[in-house]
Amino acid sequence: MSSKLTYGSKQIEWRRAQVLELDAQGYTVREIAQKLQVGHSTIDNDLLYLRHQAQQSLQHHIHEVVPEEYQKCMVGMKCNLKHVLEIGEAASDPKIKLEARRIANDCYRYIMDLCTNAGIVNDALNFVTHKQEQINALQQRKLDERTNEEAKAATEEETTTNGVF
Predict the structure, then answer these.
(1) Is residue 37 helix, strand or coil?
(2) What is the pLDDT of residue 1?
(3) pTM of the predicted model, to two decimals?
(4) Phi-psi region of 37 (alpha: psi -120 to 50; beta: other; left: phi over 0)
(5) Which residues contact 66 (CB under 8 A, 6 or more apart)?
(6) Do residues 86 and 77 make contact, with C-beta atoms less than 8 angstroms apart?
(7) d(C-alpha 45, C-alpha 39), whole Å
(8) In the chain, where are the structural domains located?
(9) Averaged in consecutive runs of 10 residues, what is the pLDDT profile of the chain (165 residues)?
(10) Three-class SS of 38-103
(11) Cα–Cα distance, 117 to 110 (Å, whole number)
């Protein structure tokens, strides 16, 4: 029987949750490993996994959640603006008209903030996309280098083998 421990997915999830919590509390890899009674490399791998998972979650949030929420907010603000302007037009009391105009101005200001800050969000999206393209290009170059090195090694081996016989 093997002396190595085997872990099911529930145990791994539990350990990773513990690693995340302890890391957030400022514990070092060594301290986490000691507390959880596992090797340093296990903690390193868990942290790498958690970092990758966080990156994927952030990508999803940036590319899917933020644009959808932005759209909902913009539509909602325009509906509010329309409704407030209708109330102001229909009101006969000058105080209500004035209050409706104040609320409409707030709506306009908020819509303008959304529009101008959307440029920042768009810049961030473009930055993330550009960096992802750079990473993909770098990975492709590394793959090309390996392929070239393997081809070169095969050619040298063939040359050496041909020269011997």
Answers:
(1) coil
(2) 40
(3) 0.51
(4) left
(5) 121
(6) no
(7) 10
(8) 9-149
(9) 61 94 94 95 94 90 87 91 92 92 91 80 73 76 81 72 55
(10) CCHHHHHHHHHHHHHHHHHHHHHHHHHHHHHHHHHHHHHHHHHHHHHHHHHHHCCCHHHHHHHHHH
(11) 10
Distance CA 90, CA 86 (A): 6
Nearest to 11 by CA among 30, 36, 29: 36
What is the distance between the terminal CA atoms of the chain, rounded to a whole angstrom?
49
Q: Which two tokens mark 165? A: 């016989």
Q: What does the alpha-carbon distance between residue 149 and residue 161 come to, in Å, rounded to a whole number?
A: 18
The tokens describing 61, both together, are 């949030």
- Supply angle C-alpha 81, 86, 89, rounded to 5: 125
